[in-house]
């Protein structure tokens, strides 16, 4: 029964997260609203900085007074524990918003945002965002959904950490990643720009060695193939069957 409920909850979260990624389905054109240069400087001052791979967009303890829209590239959101170990919380793709806690009174950043490749973002101040909320009620709803979905996702990860073993967490991550970012090719799914073993370890609270062992095991079973550029899932249903509740 618990396993069934877990599967249902995971599907609900995946659906919610996939809906938030495809922002254009909400009739909210974030690219135009949050990248004002494309509107001919509709706002008083536009800011569309570019970051090189390896640059930090912001760091913990820096002032939290802006919201960011990722228009190109990939961004890692994470933090450091008391011993200095990195904790990866999310890896974002184009079309996603981050730094949104500034909207609910976060005084200083608790996380870092790191450019995983050459990245373009659009930046708006809290005052600019509040002005947009007044003119676009659907934007307010969209931001509420983003925050709610991220809370649900963090709850799911916490439950996985408490109740599931390392192998299950890694396999579950692969299933989730494929559901969100995979492109279907016949009976197979391709995830491009596959992340490193260390990044998977950071996201699943495991070790790089454990991730490598599990990936190699799944490859031996002919469930997946992978390299630095892509992950190929040969049968998503069979991979899902590898997920076992502890």
List keywords for this structure.
8 helices; 246 residues; single chain; alpha+beta
Question: What order do the helices and strands come in, and which of them pair?
Answer:
Elements: H1 2-21, H2 30-34, E1 50-51, E2 56-58, E3 66-72, E4 75-80, E5 86-92, E6 97-98, E7 112-115, E8 119-125, H3 126-135, H4 137-163, H5 166-181, E9 183-185, E10 188-192, H6 197-204, H7 208-220, E11 224-226, E12 230-233, H8 236-241
Helix pairs in contact: 1-4, 3-4, 5-6, 5-7, 6-7
Structure description:
The protein is α+β, with helices and mostly antiparallel strands and 246 residues long. 43% of the residues lie in helices and 22% in strands. It is built from 8 helices and 12 strands. It has helices at 2-21, 30-34, 126-135, 137-163, 166-181, 197-204, 208-220, 236-241; strands at residues 50-51, 56-58, 66-72, 75-80, 86-92, 97-98, 112-115, 119-125, 183-185, 188-192, 224-226, 230-233. Strands 1-8-3-6 form a 4-stranded antiparallel β-sheet. A 4-stranded antiparallel β-sheet has the order 2-7-4-5. It has a 4-stranded antiparallel β-sheet with strand order 9-10-12-11. Helix 1 packs antiparallel against helix 4 (137-163), helix 5 (166-181) packs across helix 6 and helix 5 crosses helix 7. The longest helix has 27 residues, at 137-163. The chain is globular, with a radius of gyration of 19 Å. The two termini are 13 Å apart. The model is unreliable at 1-27 and 38-46 (pLDDT under 50).
